[in-house]
Amino acid sequence: MRLFYRGAEYETHSPQIEATEGKEIGTYRGAPLKAKSYRVAQRHHDQVQLMYRGVKYTHEI
């Protein structure tokens, strides 16, 4: 996804989230209610070169 902040453009990568339905845990207003478990895929951490008030530094994202 391309984002903009104060004229600077950057790319962001949202993590993939997997949801799996579990067993039925009850009913809500007559509808069956099932438990879900979520798993977020691990992201690779990158180092980016940033600058604050003219001083360059690297940050791991």
TrEMBL record:
This is DUF4278 domain-containing protein. InterPro entries: DUF4278.
